[in-house]
Design goal:
alpha+beta, Helix-turn-helix transcriptional regulator (chains A, B), WH-like_DNA-bd_sf (chains A, B), DNA-binding, about 15% strand, WH_DNA-bd_sf (chains A, B), about 120 residues, Arc Repressor Mutant, subunit A, homodimer, three-stranded antiparallel beta sheet
Chain lengths: ~120, ~120
Amino acid sequence: MEICPSNALPVRIGDKWTAWVVRLLEHGPRRFTELRKDMGRVTPKVLTETLRAMERDGMLTRTEFDEIPPRVEYELTELGHSLRALLDHTCAWTRENLPLIEAARRANDEADHARTA
Amino acid sequence: MEICPSNALPVRIGDKWTAWVVRLLEHGPRRFTELRKDMGRVTPKVLTETLRAMERDGMLTRTEFDEIPPRVEYELTELGHSLRALLDHTCAWTRENLPLIEAARRANDEADHARTA
DNA sequence: CCGTATCCACAATGATACTG
DNA sequence: CAGTATCATTGTGGATACGG
């Protein structure tokens, strides 16, 4: 997740894409293709899996409009919105501590390298 | 992680075992085998990998005592301790919301089953 | 537009056995 | 006691192509 750089990091919300979906939906409903465009390289299969799992858990609703061309909107439920506070804590922790972690990694990797050389 | 039942759930700290290690070390240093015993079924390989990764990231220190039989102690650093607040938030969120998620799952699964039948 | 259907790659975890 | 070495398994995510 690049949304807050927790790629490097020990805290994740569910799978690889869930947190990102929450962020993209926090200001209102979005359509499938909108989400897809804003999420870097998600394949439709994986995005569908993510959204279905979140729907099953009651984090969002899926609304299908009977139009042509088809339109489907995804919207956070109250439960989905409640994740935002947790995401905020997580991002805050990461902002504060990521530099420390990166420094520790560099130090340890350098020490290992010195030992090997 | 059964420590707070986030198995079912969308928030995880790092990999499968990291959060548990933090909890086991929060009141002081522990030895390899102590950790292993308290952590259900971790194989020594996986526990070693977890501990080494955490050490590399500056979350804990590994202290080897020159005794026979060997003794090694793992202890959280300040950075490691800082994860506790995040864990607390996560567990609180889970305690509050897990029932809702489980209810949503039951409801959705039942609806699916009805549709299939 | 909004997906499904197949197949595949890889990382994470586990089982088992062995060692300084 | 505190690991290492190998191998097997699984599960998540991705590539690609196609369908209502």
